Amino acid sequence: MLPEGMKRFKFIGTVVMAGIGCFQFLTSSEASAKGPIESIPKATTYHAPPPGVDYSTNPSVFGQILSGKLPARTLTETTNLLAFEDRSPAAELHGLVIPKRYIESVFSLDSQSRTDIELVQEMHQMGLSLIEEYHPEALASGDYTLCFHIPPFTSVDHLHLHVLAPASSMSWWYGSVKYKCPKRWCVSDMTVLERLQEGKPAVPYNKPFKIFPTR
Ligand SMILES: [Zn+2]
């Protein structure tokens, strides 16, 4: 259970993100970006949990994707990670890389845990290989974004890395606001990784909502 204060901020975050979505819908005349992954069918797959992981204790919608209760367009999978297409793609390639182990958000990552640091490294590598597979030209020119949203500006309570390529295929709202790092709501995976490796918290904010950085 979340404390009341946190619930309120989470609610505010959800309202802000919903508002952003409506704004995007009203200001964008283009249809959502379509890329080569359109050819991959939307499938319901059962993703075998790694040893010691129990999907039934994952309360998020991604837990249902992992256990095959909800469909997703799977892009790739390893023992620890699953990547699938975002429900509303913001770029020609818009993948989400998630750990199969339940991790609520960047706030749950522990700089003292070798496993957590290696997990973020693995997520970064998977993000890069997806871009290499679907948009090698974007990888070569650095035209991509790999980022995490920071609570309360998260839509799902399960850590997910956004993989967006080409970044230049995003609308102004997505490219310059929603998926723009570093912002209070968005952080690049490399920043998270570097901070964890330096023994710092993943993001320079406290979990109870604070707008200004702590360190
Ligand atoms: Zn997000």
From TrEMBL:
Nucleotide-binding is among the record's keywords: yes
InterPro entries named among the record's database cross-references: Histidine_triad_HIT (IPR001310), HIT-like (IPR011146), HIT-like_sf (IPR036265)
Pfam families with a match to the protein in the record: DcpS_C (PF11969)
Record-level Gene Ontology MF annotations: hydrolase activity; nucleotide binding
UniProt superkingdom: Eukaryota
Motif interval(s): Histidine triad motif: 158-162
Protein name per Swiss-Prot or TrEMBL: HIT domain-containing protein
Alphabetized UniProt keyword annotations: Hydrolase, Nucleotide-binding
Residue ranges of every copy of the HIT domain listed in the record: 61-179
Keyword tRNA processing in annotation: no
Active-site residues from the entry: 160
